[in-house]
Amino acid sequence: MSIGSPFHPRTAPLNRKQQWRxxxxxxxxxxxxxxxxxxxxxxxxxxxxIDVSPLYKYTVSGRDALALVDxxxxxxxxxxxxxxxxxxxxxxxxGKVVDDGTVHRTAEREFFWTAADPQLRWLTLNARxxxxxxxxxxxxxxxxxxxxxxxxxxxxxxTEEPFGELRYFRRRPSTLRGRSRGRGARRTTTSTLPIEVxxxxxxxxxGYELWIPAERAAEAWDSVMTAGRxxxxxxxxxxxxxxxxxxxxxxxxxVDYTSARHALNPEQNYSPYELAMGRLVELDAGDFVGxxxxxxxxxxxxPARRLVGVQLEWDGIERSFTRQGLAPAISQSIDRSxxxxxxxxxxxxxGKLTSHGWSPILKQAIGLASVPPAYEAPxxxxxxxxxxxxxxxxxxxxxxxxxxxxxxxxxx
Length: 412
Hints:
Blueprint: E1 3-4, H1 8-14, E2 19-23, E3 26-31, H2 37-45, E4 47-51, E5 56-61, H3 65-72, E6 85-91, E7 97-107, E8 110-115, H4 120-126, E9 133-136, E10 141-147, H5 151-159, E11 171-181, E12 188-198, E13 207-213, H6 217-227, E14 233-235, H7 238-247, H8 291-299, E15 306-312, H9 314-322, E16 339-342, E17 349-359, E18 364-371, E19 381-388, E20 391-400
Helix pairs in contact: 2-7, 5-6
């Protein structure tokens, strides 16, 4: 049975239509408003607060903590500095991705790990022979994603500290400061709440993630929302988050790929090179799980499919509706169902769309597609199945580089 996150006492009253979905055993808001477009606009034009507490979270510490991280992830963990955060996949012995997430180095012998799926057993299995302690802190640490062009101003208002020096994918401790007025006109009380802040997020925008003691989650929510009043802050749910993560070209577990632990056949197994994660694989560093299999894959010329960005031509979408006597329409929500992708001429299916939908800021229909290497290059022509009123047709599409949207402020 799903339960509310540590922020549920604050998020539940804001969810007007009680639009919830299940996320790792927690209730997550699909949308707070009648439609999620206003929440999308908050992320892209103002500031938004997203409850991401259902992420699985672990601490890895001890003499061999670095050795364990280096054994699991596909990157050279010795290069990860204290105070730095890495996004990374990790693989099974066949070189297929188990999950992807972030690894934070919090001290010389201590790491903080986030993941979409449970990883305690996987980390424990790979810790054999090492002097290391692994603790599941999912329930004890709540998490908020503060995202949007005014995220820094909101954070500085809430902490009374400057954050311009915190670089992209770095972290540091901070303190939320809340004020409440007492009985006298001039009597105020100040509360302080120690937190950790990382310059990370899943939106492709300027943003921070706040890691908060779960027992003080409601207090932290109040502090940030109060600080954000002058910056158009809004709570945002999963529907808006899905749109911005697609614009940022970010993959979603069990949507754009299947975990190697859940795959039922070879087609459901993906290597990092099939998910546009090749830049995150260091084959000459360490002896991580799956390294030998990935070296063999590269020696064979790479995998037989690649993840690419796709732009769908609106004229084709419009014609599909016109043929049925309907005005053109496209859902504001991201479609997560697989959709066949064909060669530009003929009936040969060559791949599939994994996520697709409308980008409000780009004014285009976009998607992520898994296709053969011959169609990987930007400008490659494709055809995507498009169904209207049960009638299947084709819409022309073009492969484009990822991400679709690369905002300079994300790294500024």
